Amino acid sequence: MAKRSKRSKIGRPRGKEPLSKKHYTAIHLLVYNFKLTHEQVADVLGITRKTLYNWRQRKDFDRAYTKELTKMINALKRQSRRISHVDLALKGDIKAIEFVLGANEMI
To answer: Which residues lie closer than 8 Å to 51 by C-beta, 6 or more apart?
Structure first.
């Protein structure tokens, strides 16, 4: 009789399925619609609150969530810097004027 390897292919597969479009939609809703509760996000997606909680516990979901949150925060920082440069430009600061025009691809 043939010997079985220690890692048999019988039974439930190891690991989780990769993140689906529904997972990424949940991430988007959680990051950009921060006023929504987890229950509201779950309702929009047609899942239970417990399922959303379980997704939040996954390492790959957390990495994708953190990455999207970081992107949003960096975009807000860039926008904030641009606004402060616009304020300086309106006050006549030459370097700020050059920055604003360069950032908007006008020079």
So the answer is: 42
**Two tokens, residue 24:** 């990424």
Q: Please give the Cα distance from 6 to 16 (Å, whole number).
A: 20
Global pTM value: 0.63
C-beta of residue 65 within 8 angstroms of C-beta of residue 58: no
Alpha helices in 1-107 (DSSP H): 21-32, 38-45, 49-57, 59-90, 94-103
Instruction: Please classify residue 26 by burial: count the beta carbons closer than 10 Å to its beta carbon, then call 0-12 exposed, 13-18 middle and 19+ buried.
Output: buried
Q: Kindly report, residue by residue over 13-58, the tens digit of the pLDDT.
A: 566 789 999 999 999 999 988 789 999 999 999 999 999 999 999 9
Query: Which amino acid would we find at residue 69?
Result: L
